[in-house]
Amino acid sequence: MRTAEIKRMTAETDIEVLLALDEKGPAVINTGCGFFDHMLTLFAKHSGFSLKAICNGDTDVDYHHSVEDIGICLGQAFAKALGDRKGIMRYADTTLPMDESLVLTAVDISGRAYLSFNVPMPSAKVGDFDTELVKEFFEAFVRTAGVTLHVRLLAGENTHHVIEGVFKSFARTMRKACAIDPENADEIPSTKGLLD
To answer: Would you state the pLDDT for residue 86?
Structure first.
């Protein structure tokens, strides 16, 4: 069973993340930010992963530390749950429409951290959520997950739709990349013999 539990406590946040790649379950999300809860709930639903993410953070300051640190923990959870990455599809991409928005994500679960994030945000905030934090989340995620991730906004006018499209597309892409390739289930998908 590909599962992971990550706990992380700093002076700014106290986080628990539980991730199971091979089982569905109701998402248990409480980050202290309603909009970010919505995005992580969408991620869990569209990825098909079981996800719990609880964060007590310094939201009296803003949501920066909570969002970034959840990205760190979720990346660590993926790295741990995937283990040696034997049998995974490794590569995947998704082009996803969300009303007027169109988002492309592509991932390589390579062991190498890289983010290319070309998503101009139409507005600086959605409610009380700073939209620049979306990139902060993904930067933290790729750094600890060890993945290469490209995110492109192909069309979009409504900021909520843009961000929702990003998280849904990312979810679908991770679902496909983490899936086990039945024809190569016992092989690491690299000529090097390891992914790092």
So the answer is: 85
Q: Which residue has the tokens 């600890």?
A: 144
How many residues can be counted in the chain?
196
Non-local (6+) Cβ contacts of 159 within 8 A are 121, 122, 123, 126, 131
**DSSP assignments along 46-89, one per residue:** HHT-EEEEEEEE-TTT-SHHHHHHHHHHHHHHHHHHHTT-TTB-
Determine the longest span between alpha carbons in the chain, in angstroms.
51
The DSSP code for 125 is E
For residue 165, the SS3 value is: helix
- Give the pLDDT confidence of 49-99 residue by residue, as tens digits: 999 999 999 999 999 999 999 999 999 999 999 998 988 999 999 999 999
Cα–Cα distance measured from residue 59 to residue 32, given in angstroms and rounded to the nearest whole number: 7
Quote the strand ranges of 113-181, DSSP E.
114-118, 125-126, 129-130, 148-155
Alpha carbons 4 and 104: distance in angstroms, whole number: 27
Looking at per-residue pLDDT, the higher value among 24 and 131 belongs to: 131
Mean pLDDT estimate for the chain:
94
86-106: pLDDT as tens digits: 889 999 999 999 999 999 999
Helix (H, G, I), strand (E, B) or coil at 130: strand
Q: Evaluate whether 42 touches 172 at the Cβ level (below 8 Å).
A: no
